[in-house]
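As promised in the previous annual report, we have extended the structural survey to additional targets. Below is the entry for C-3',4' desaturase CrtD.
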Amino acid sequence: MYDVIIVGTGFGGVTTSALLAKKGYRTLTLEAANELGGCAGKFERQSFRFQAGATLGMGFEEDGVFSQLFHELGMSSPPVHLLHTVMDVHFSERTIRYYQQKERWFEEIAQQFPKDSGAIVRFFKEMFSLADALLSFVYKRPMIPPKTMKHIFEVIQKADRKLLSAAPFLFQSIAKRLQHYGIHDETFIAFLNGQLVDSVQTTIERCPALLGAVALSVFHRGAFYVEGGLATVVHALAERYKQLGGELRMREKVISIRKERHWLVTTNRNQTYEAKHVVFNGSVHSIFAILDDSIKRTFSIREEKEKKRPAWGAFTIYMGVDDNFQTDSLYHQFIVDKTKPMSEGNQFLLSTSAPFDRQMAPVGKRSITISTHTEPLHWWNRHAYDEQKKMLTEQILQRVNKTFPLTNIHVQLVGTPVTFARFTHRAFGKVGGYIPNGPFSLLSTYAPQTNVEGLWLCGDTVFPGAGSLGCALSGWIVADAIAMDK
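The corresponding structure token record, generated without further manual editing, is:
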């Protein structure tokens, strides 16, 4: 019998696995796919490596989440490179260069928005201050929402004056803060909407101020290019996990989780494993397909409610091309029409491999990933699927070619929510966590600890939220809690 079985090898799963193995727990990690990482995974075609999503690296700065995690696990960081330019944001009439260094970014603001630059800089400084207050608390890894009196006392102990100073902003939106500063510039608001949709899945009207503050500050703490893509980090953590004595089994899909005296986890290979704890690393809306009915009846999260909670899917284009980019930026955001919704190809992120990264592409070539938000349920209409995929691909590439004429395309593949459902086993291909529905949406977050003893959650649909940092922290919270319950 195992102490803990971890289902899934996204950032949350491999973090939990490695930390528990280091603490001496007998662990088994099960991955359904051929590749590690889930939505942070990779695949290869014709000497090109592609990341599942167009993602930057974060948390590798001194005292960042991954720097702390690697130190805790006694391992070295994979090769990463600080980006002085986070990304170029392309509008039809201009390009905004989003700088990592705060003062350089403020200079760009002064050039791009001279009329409102003072107010915009004050707005960003407020965001940085709020993020400092919130992250100083979140990085202490509290269990939110607290599930027991013990958790409540821990939350009180980990809270500080900084966090209390952020309390007045708890139920405000980013739109409310912009109104406070008198900022109404259409292009700047479109810029913010693009950043927020990519990081927290919504725009200024529905984005809680505290959540938006973290999203708008995180790149200024450190934005990085990771050699070989984010999957390199997942593989490094998984390798360390195995070195610490953990068991990892690939291509073994969990089809049932039930509880008798202990937890019983059954896979598609007709194997049943027993454990004291089960950690599910995946979206909450995907767990119901494998939970036994007896667990569902007592589970505080209701399946029907989950089906109604909105979440995005991703439409992705993967390309292997010749290296003829006339720019030093590796990441590019395109906002085609700033008056329209930030989805379905109107806003998309393009990431290109670094010219020196031989893991991603051969000499003289680049690997490209393009990603846009899309309504996932629309893609399950098989009659319209092919035409929808063709139209959206053409729409996106037409806009890209105006800025970067793509010649000699060696590989071109397209992924839809159907693709993500197939390869990452997410219900309906929903990715990126939930879509916030207003300033009060912070109250609807789920804790990594469930109401069912011994059943834990980590990933993008539980506290502290989506993204590589949020998922890793959720896994770390689970590892801490299991160790404390020993």
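The domain at 2-41+65-79+230-308+441-485 is CATH 3.50.50.60 (FAD/NAD(P)-binding domain). The chain has a mean pLDDT of 94. These points will be discussed at the next consortium meeting with the crystallography subgroup.
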